[in-house]
Amino acid sequence: MAARLAPQNVRRMHQSLHHLVADAPWSDEAVLDRALDFVLPAMLTRGPVVAWVVDDTGFPKKGMHSVGVIRQYCGQVGKQENCRVAVSLSVTTETSSMPVGFGLYLPELWANDSERRAKAGVPDEIPFRTKPEIALGQIRRARQRGIPEGVVLADAGYGTDTGFRTELTKLELRYVAGVQSTVTVWKPGAGPKAARPYRGKGRPPSLLGRDEKHQPVSVKELALSLPATAWDNVTWRQGVKQRLRSRFAAVRVRPAHRDYWRSEPHAEEWLLVEWPKGEAQPTKYWLSTLPAETSLNELARMAKHRWIIERDYEELKQELGLGHFEGRGWRGFHHHATLCLAAYGFLVAERNRFSPSARVGNVGLPAPELPANFRPRGSRPPRAA
């Protein structure tokens, strides 16, 4: 880039570009907002916003001095590894998606180490926040920004956090969130016991109860107890080679997490379970606040819509260099990521404007008339009269 911009003074231009990424005090949020102003209208020409997808991605990194690097689970390598992790929020239509929020997860070890923070340039106002807390901050900002809302989709790393799901409900946002198999719920039609009757002394009891014979069950236990008629084959989209399908079941349940400290039971939600044919047990579980009349097909389709952002991360890392940042600082990491996301936004907008599947007339390009004597190459010559 430096050689193209300043072929007579490459070194100085290289230093300027390095300063732009590593040190210049421009706003990441402002640049992402401007990119969104460019890409969102193009996305909406192909269809409405379907979902807001919460996810995180890991960046393997050697050493312990680069900002946020610690031994933790890294999805890119599928195991515990030295890496940094960033949380993102993407807005999606049926066919495309664009990250609109991106922030580094700062582990507690880093957040509480003033010397490390100073060396990496972590702003004083950045406290330790869990990944679900970072995601909720991005969701609130997206709402303030006026981005068209969709169903919030998240994997079990977020959905198992009851506080995360509760906050989404307070924000009046529907969700389909993955949960771990150990999450407990009340069976369909059941719930915690009402508060004990008042005996005339002290404060009247108000907390819900349970006993040895009246207990919630794990979602795995409930799934294994469902009859064969509860399961149905669902196709949710066309894959590269074949249509993607699996077995699903969905029932209405009440989450049971610490409801013995509540005076009212949790509201009913959908429990969606996937049990692929040939597997010994169910493989995935989701809780959802989609309406009670939602069909099994729609529940499964929405749960599987998270696939769309996998393409984003693949292209951002392999084609646009998202994982190539070699600096150690907080500002440089976010500047580098923001520039990659802005470039990706340009590509997303162009794809939506000039989709290969669109007819030429739909994108305003001229279609020249074919000459009267035009004959495709390789075709048979016309027969003599």
Summarize the structure.
The protein is of the alpha+beta class.
Structural class by helix and strand composition = alpha+beta
Instruction: Name the CATH homologous superfamily.
Output: Transposase Inhibitor Protein From Tn5, Chain A, domain 1
Beta-strand percentage range: 15-25%
Task: Please give the count of helices.
Answer: 12
Number of domains: 1
What is the CATH topology descriptor?
Transposase Inhibitor Protein From Tn5, Chain A, domain 1
**For the report, how would you describe the main beta sheet?**
12 strands, mixed
Oligomer class? single chain
CATH class: Alpha Beta
| Residue share in helix | 25-40%
Rounded mean pLDDT score: 90
Shape: globular
Radius of gyration: 26 Å
**From N to C, what is the helix and strand string?**
HHHEEEEHHHEHHEEEHEEEEHHH
Low-confidence stretches: none
End-to-end C-alpha gap: 62 Å
What is the architecture at the second tier of CATH? Alpha-Beta Complex
